[in-house]
Protein: ATP/GTP-binding protein
Organism: Pseudonocardia xishanensis
Amino acid sequence: MSAPLSSGIVTRSEDGPDGEWAVRHVPGGSSVKDYRCPGCDQTIPAGVGHVVTWPAGEYGSVEERRHWHLPCWNARGRRRPGIRRPR
């Protein structure tokens, strides 16, 4: 299921082995600050497209939202917890 926002950005629901998530694709032009990807522990620089996720059913409070590189989000089920890549 997808829900458009007033800015034209679509939030969709995604089911995975780790639960149901709200997923929003953020175009590079809309990204104005740096974030740290929890999948690879690397920086997502401002201006780079990525996804923002939060547990489904919540509005996406700052405490629950996570910004991911899209490949890291898609590979999250294949990573071992607690493993960090060197910077």
